[in-house]
Structure formats: C-alpha cells, structure tokens
C-alpha cells in the first residue's frame, strides 16, 4: 500500500467544568431515583411497637365524634337587577 494509515486515536477535548457538573449531577439524580423506586417497592417497617399500636381497636367514643356545624356567614341575598335592553 502506498499510503500510510493513521491509527492514532482522535483528539477529544478535555471536558469543561460545566460538562463535569452536568455529568455527575445526572449520575446522582439517577441514583436518587433508584433509591426512591426501591423505597416504594421495598417498604421498611419502623418498629414492631409502632405496628402493634396501629392495629389496636379504637373506643367507640373516639371513633364517633360529632362534628360541629359552622355557621354560614356568606349567605347574603343577592340584589336583583333588571336586564338592560
């Protein structure tokens, strides 16, 4: 072959500071998303005592509390106006 082939690697410029921040920010964002998805898929109970407290039967007094009705202040009669033609 008459021509020599250049097998040297292409020159790639050094990444800038902004490119590095973007790259590592994307990595941290992906890791954070994976942790969030795993937290949803694999729920961890806080403690055995907290679980037993939530299953205790409640007294009928605490369940049936009557709610006080709030007075309706904004019920004012609207002033009727005649249609103009």
From TrEMBL:
The lineage of its organism: Eukaryota, Metazoa, Chordata, Craniata, Vertebrata. The chain crosses the membrane at residues 24-44. Belongs to the UPF0239 family. Pfam families: UPF0239. The keyword GTP-binding does not apply. One of its GO terms (cellular component) is membrane. Residues 47-85 are annotated as: Disordered. It is a single-pass membrane protein. This is Mannosidase beta like. It is found in: Membrane. InterPro entries: UPF0239. Coiled coil: none annotated. Residues 75-85 have a biased composition (Basic residues). PANTHER family: MANNOSIDASE, BETA A, LYSOSOMAL-LIKE, MANBAL PROTEIN, PROTEIN MANBAL. Keywords: Membrane, Transmembrane, Transmembrane helix. Residues 48-64 have a biased composition (Basic and acidic residues). It comes from the Eukaryota.
